[in-house]
Amino acid sequence: MALSNPPQDVKSPAFFSWIYQAWKAILGNSTSVIANTAAIATLQTQTDSKHLGVATLSSGNATVATTAATASSAIVLTPLVGVSSVPHIASRTAGTGFTISTGNAGDAGSIQWLLIVGT
């Protein structure tokens, strides 16, 4: 399944629809390509622990170890349960992983993450 260029307005309904289509492609184990004017990025559609997983927060933070992380990886976060604040990527180290934070020490829930590696 080929995806179109992502909408530029990340707050638009079209952007969220685009993200939904990317999730469907990944969860369906299909091969997807995002056409971009600057480059072509291939979605890593494996449902392996290097590209997709669930992190458990402790005091609002979680560290994800994955060798697939790069400096330009897109990381999509989806709060599952027990998360009252908006999660974000607090830090990342290419080839090692990344840290998720909500900034709320009371958050101890789960966050699903998806790593999209660009070329």
Architecture overview:
The chain has 1 helix and 9 strands. The protein has one helix spanning 13-27, and strands spanning 2-3, 33-35, 40-42, 52-56, 61-65, 74-81, 88-93, 97-101, 110-116. It is globular and about 40 Å long. Strands 1-2-3 form a 3-stranded mixed β-sheet. It has a 3-stranded antiparallel β-sheet with strand order 4-9-6, with no helix packed on it. A 3-stranded antiparallel β-sheet has the order 5-8-7, with no helix packed on it. The chain is mainly beta and 119 residues long.
Keywords:
mainly beta, 2 domains, 3-stranded mixed β-sheet, 3-stranded antiparallel β-sheet, 1 helix, 9 strands, globular
Counting helices, strands and paired strands, the structural category is mainly beta
Mean pLDDT: 74
* Helix count, DSSP H or I runs of 4 or more residues: 1
Overall structural domain count: 2
Q: How does the major sheet shape up?
A: 3 strands, mixed
What coarse outline follows from CA principal-axis ratios?
A: globular
Q: In which range does the helix fraction lie? A: 10-25%
Q: Radius of gyration over alpha carbons? A: 14 Å
Distance between the termini: 18 Å
Short summary of the structure?
The chain is mainly beta and 119 residues long. It has one helix at residues 13-27, and strands at residues 2-3, 33-35, 40-42, 52-56, 61-65, 74-81, 88-93, 97-101, 110-116. β2 (33-35) and β3 (40-42) form a beta hairpin.
